[in-house]
Design goal:
Largest interface: A-B, 36 and 37 residues
Largest sheet of chain A: 8 strands, parallel
Oligomer: homodimer
Strand order of the largest sheet of chain A: 4-14-13-12-11-10-6-5
Mean pLDDT of chain A: 95
Low-confidence stretches of chain A: none
């Protein structure tokens, strides 16, 4: 019997209004180890969740992390990763992974990019060399990397963009989604680990675009759903639009996505945002915020955000977060974390990142529990209350 | 009965020629957890073994690490560390520590220092502020930091230095050793953890100076021994003298140090050097080499030194060191370590440092075993043979 190469399965096991708790079963996260949703996915741009050994990312409970197609294509190169057996083996991460399509980085890291119907010409931010990403090329690269979930190649519309520009960009993106899917269907048996999971392969997600225009978002969602993907992302957010717009676009889009498929909002967000989006029915999120903020000394805690470099922590013998049980909070004081940050010791980013990831991953654990027992609104209220005590924006994309 | 405030105890349990295997029993490393010698002590200059969480330094088997009086005095300040309960509590390191006196850093990091009979006037390398270290001040700071072993304040003679200059420097250093000891004896009950180890306190080591002149080294050793310290260091080495001179000075000095006290050579060395010095009868060594080299992509292995950034490792699926069982060698490939280094990912220095420390600590474990079973000469021959395949100097001081 020929192999059918099936994608993920998604199961809902609890609901609270439109919020849902569920499980995504993937080749590298299956059965008891399936990805529990709503999930926050730590970002490992260049094949590493910055500064944290994989052993510790595992201990924190992460079951799926991101890799970045644009960065990994440039360095070390997807063909090398393929020869090493795929990204899981190359970086020694046995659990699930997701790669974005590279569309966002081509958009955000390249001032000189040129978009045609065929694809995007861009220059490497590393050495200025010229490259072309087409939908086919992006999927070819993502198959070589071999993440459990890969994303269609899209154009991420800048903000602000007028209606005509957004309309045109959306048409390109939808055509690219078709081409991404066609290429994937023809090549999905080529993933480096095909032999290890007979009959299971990667899952290709569609990406809803349409800028800040609800009608375009709706059209984008409907036309993608007609193409039938195993999961759908909402892209084109966190592009410096005001936060209320982010929420409005998510709210306007979600009703047009099928209930029985995972819904992924890309590039978000602050703790109070990810809890809110989960309550709105979002299943997957990713963001560089906890890891990037950590490297700048910003800690997320149950008492709000702390700038650990602040002198007021110089003799604070308490843990970063008194409610946290991560390895950092169990062992080290704010005074020590403050000293490491003030002295620019490399251990500072290691420990800060571990704590921030623990905070985000524990928060999602609380979200999942709160969906099951019906307390999500009060959890959101609590997270919002501590957020109000804190302030200041941080860039949220890699 | 009044407390006597006893220093360390040192016990020899095996000998091979002049080499010896033993145990140093310290307040934070006693009984079964005593420091086993010959020992290599990882350097934690500013209160952190750079880039590695204390949990992992423990797992690697380190029982004693260094702190740096000069650096910690400037930041976060010894009074703060004292208020936090001492360095062990401040950095959350429950095992033994040793602080140097600050003499070496005043010498190496300050071009404008001014030495008088009283002490050294210097400017902070951080902000240019003026400071004075005297023997009394150095010991006061080191008591506040509260390491298990502290060092007399000394002048580290530069290389090259003529006989008259070295003679004069030695006289100052010996006078400072007396003053260091007098201050320590009068204040040794003030260590922050005095109450936790009733009757036990810090141990003050003397430091032999005398430049590259065997007769001055001998005189220095004899006059220090007359002062009766619980351990003796050989300082003033690794100051850019040729390596054969380092060995000659150690060789000329050791016979003048008591056999029943630990002997510590400061700031050494390469793997083949630390094995050789252990064979010559040295018990303790420290060096920034394994940690600093790691941050530059240089790995020490049973096959010699590797520059992991080298393109030849780009697709090498083997571990950094096939004979090593550290967490890095068990999990990650040379190809991945090469990618991390080439991409300047922060995880690169974390993993490289862990491996290099594992290599050094495992090597000392082999040295101790080889002393007991009589195979130290063949171990040295093996380590030298792989070293010959490698080359290139690395700065060895923090």
């Amino acid at each position: 019997m020929p192999l059918t190469y099936t994608p993920l399965t998604y199961t809902i096991d609890a609901e609270l209004g439109v919020a849902r708790r569920g499980r995504i079963d993937l080749p590298h996260a299956s059965g008891e180890a399936a990805v529990q949703t709503p999930v926050f996915m730590p970002v490992g741009t260049v094949g590493s969740v910055k500064a944290v050994p994989q052993e510790i990312v595992e201990t924190l409970g992460a079951r799926v992390i991101l890799g970045n197609t644009y960065h990994l294509y440039l360095r070390p190169g997807h063909e090398l990763v393929r020869r090493m057996g795929g990204l899981h083996k190359f970086i020694s991460w046995p659990r699930a992974m997701l790669t974005d399509s590279g569309g966002f980085q081509v958009f955000s890291l390249n001032e000189l990019r040129k978009v045609t119907d065929d694809g995007v010409h861009f220059r490497s931010h590393l050495d200025g060399s010229s490259h072309l990403f087409t939908p086919e090329r992006s999927i070819e690269i993502q198959i070589a990397l071999g993440a459990d979930i890969l994303m269609v190649f899209d154009e991420c519309t800048e903000y602000p963009a007028d209606y005509a520009r957004t309309r045109k960009s959306l048409d390109i993106t939808l055509a690219w989604a078709e081409r991404s899917k066609a290429y994937f269907e023809a090549h999905k048996h080529e993933v480096p680990w095909a032999a290890d999971f007979a009959g299971r392969t990667q899952s290709l997600f569609g990406i809803v675009q349409g800028g800040m225009y609800p009608d375009l978002r709706r059209e984008s969602a409907e036309r993608l759903v007609a193409m039938d993907f195993p999961g759908y992302a909402i892209g084109g957010l966190s592009v410096s639009e005001p936060r209320h717009l982010t929420r409005e676009v998510i709210e306007a889009t979600l009703p047009h996505l099928p209930k029985d498929k995972p819904r992924y909002v890309m590039g978000v967000g602050y703790p109070e945002e990810i809890v809110e989006y989960a309550m709105m029915g979002v299943d997957m999120m990713d963001c560089v915020l906890p890891t990037r903020a950590a490297r700048h000394g910003l800690l997320f805690t149950s008492e709000g955000r702390l700038n650990i470099k602040n002198r007021r922590f110089a003799e604070d013998q308490g843990p970063a977060d008194p409610e946290c049980t991560c390895m950092v909070c169990r062992r080290y004081t704010r005074a020590y974390l403050r000293h490491l940050a003030a002295s620019q010791e490399p251990l500072s980013m290691v420990l800060n990142t571990i704590h921030n990831l623990a905070y985000y991953l524990d928060l999602m654990q609380s979200v999942r529990q709160a969906i099951a027992i019906g307390t999500l609104p009060s959890l959101l209220a609590r997270v919002r209350a501590v957020a109000r005590a804190s302030a200041g924006p941080i860039a949220t994309h890699s």
